[in-house]
Design goal:
Largest sheet: 7 strands, mixed
Number of strands: 16
Number of helices: 13
CATH class of the largest domain: Alpha Beta
Strand content: 15-25%
Helix content: 25-40%
Shape: globular
Oligomer: single chain
CATH architecture of the largest domain: 3-Layer(aba) Sandwich
Number of domains: 2
Radius of gyration: 22 Å
CATH topology of the largest domain: Aspartate Aminotransferase, domain 2
Strand order of the largest sheet: 4-12-11-10-7-5-6
CATH superfamily of the largest domain: Type I PLP-dependent aspartate aminotransferase-like (Major domain)
Structural class: alpha/beta
Length: 430
């Protein structure tokens, strides 16, 4: 029951475990989770929270799903892991077949990795090695837009926003890339050539140095939760083709239905040369990512020196992760997930609408199963999160953003409680 003693040693956690984006000298509060099921996180003290984050956007089917549980147990009884160098296995083959079938036709080759950040590293290495195989070794820089986020490893970090990212901390150590202005045309607005004027100029001036443009299609995630017009991507594809530059789409946060399409690129109806997926790939059960690439890019890489792609994670294509990912995709396709996402979109629009009237709120925006309340000033996360927990919901704000990414299985009643709690707490901090 709420208030009962916690059996998880939080004192040890505080003294010895370093949580993401926290200080060891002034740690943020952590909440001990005893179990998770459906859309609920049950704390060790008995409190039950409605999860509005899908565990950083991954748990689209909620928690403790019997179909995914069975996939894990069944695979574990056969083989939990085997090296992927020189060997293969059914879960990897089955998952690759699904990914090739789901993604745009030009993307025919699948390279598995351990996390979203690593899949971006792989994409960057592929782009650079592609041009090296063609004898154009000067094409070794990336171009991207400001306000983006692509991960925390070094190459991925180099294409995150140069101001809100970590460039100043690691200046001189990370790769120096090119940045253009972020898309200004909102999702429901037309996009014109003027919206790409800056990136057009960058390509015109620097295309001889640029291996690829990398971008999050339609939604810039952790860099600001900004939604922009699909037409921007159509014009960007044309520019990349015109200047001889590869195009990389980072679908790690947007893939597998989150925006109302299986992949966000479908809003624009175009295909990239390289594409990264992760997060919801396994339904939040295991860490796994993949980088998909066209046959042309893959064959060019392998036609040059040294004749192979130079990457190979130890746990690449882990059978447990591949098995649960394959089951997650099958589960997603087994019901009308689009209707579920549209229902969540309607609920988020209705539930967050009262925030628009608050003077401290800059914007409220919703797309698919994503709801964002943007404030004028940053929130004190430790204070706001405690208030949200006290209301029985789990939401993790950052900066000026209080946002929701609920599991697709969330019912209207639970979503209503979630949005009402957000509106009430935002009102107290505005």
């Amino acid at each position: 029951m709420p208030g009962q003693p916690c059996s998880i040693d939080l004192d040890f956690d505080r003294c010895h475990i370093w949580h993401p984006y926290t200080s060891v000298t002034n740690p943020l509060p952590v909440y001990a989770v005893a179990r998770a099921y459906d859309v609920f996180l049950e704390l060790d003290d008995g409190r039950k929270l409605i999860d509005g984050m899908s565990s950083w956007w991954a748990a689209i089917h909620g928690y403790n799903n019997p179909v995914l549980n069975e996939a894990m147990v069944s695979q574990m009884q056969r083989m939990s892991h085997v090296m992927f160098g020189g060997l293969t296995h059914e879960p990897a083959v089955a998952l690759a077949k699904q990914l090739v079938a789901l993604t745009p036709q030009p993307l025919q080759k699948v390279f598995f990795s351990d996390s979203g950040s690593v899949s971006v590293e792989v994409a960057i290495k592929m782009a650079i090695q592609y041009w090296a195989a063609l004898g154009k070794t000067s094409k070794n820089r990336l171009l991207t837009v400001r306000s983006g986020y692509h991960g925390d490893t070094f190459a991925a970090m180099s294409v995150c926003d140069p101001l809100t990212g970590m460039h100043s901390l690691f200046k001189g150590s990370i790769l120096e890339q090119y940045f253009a202005e972020a898309p200004r045309c909102r999702f429901d607005e037309p996009c014109t050539g003027n919206d790409l004027a800056d990136i057009h100029v960058m390509l015109e001036l620097r295309h001889m140095d640029i291996a690829a443009v990398i971008i999050e299609p339609v939604i810039q995630g952790a860099g600001g939760m900004r939604f922009y017009a699909p037409g921007y991507l159509v014009r960007l594809r044309e520019l990349c083709d015109s200047f001889g530059v590869l195009l990389i789409f980072d679908e790690i946060a947007t893939g597998f239905g989150r925006t109302g399409k299986m992949f966000a690129l479908e809003h624009a109806g175009i295909a990239p040369d390289i594409m990264c997926v992760g997060k919801a790939l396994t339904g939040g059960y295991m860490t796994l990512a993949a980088t998909l690439v066209t046959e042309s890019v893959a064959e060019t890489i392998c036609s040059g020196n040294p004749g192979v792609f130079m990457h190979g994670p130890t746990f690449m294509a882990n059978p447990l992760a591949c098995a649960v990912a394959s089951a997650s995709i099958t589960l997603l396709k087994s019901y009308d997930w689009k209707a579920s996402v549209l229902r969540l979109e309607a609920g988020l629009l209705k539930g967050l609408e009262p925030c628009r009237e608050l003077k401290g709120v800059m914007d409220v925006r919703v797309l698919g199963a994503i709801g964002v309340v943007e404030l004028h000033s940053p929130v004190d996360m430790a204070v706001v999160q405690k208030k949200l927990v006290d209301k029985g919901v789990w939401v993790r704000p950052f900066g000026r953003l209080v946002y929701l990414m609920p599991p697709f299985i969330m019912h209207d009643e639970e979503l209503g409680i979630l949005t009402a709690a957000v509106c009430e707490i935002v009102k107290t901090v505005c």
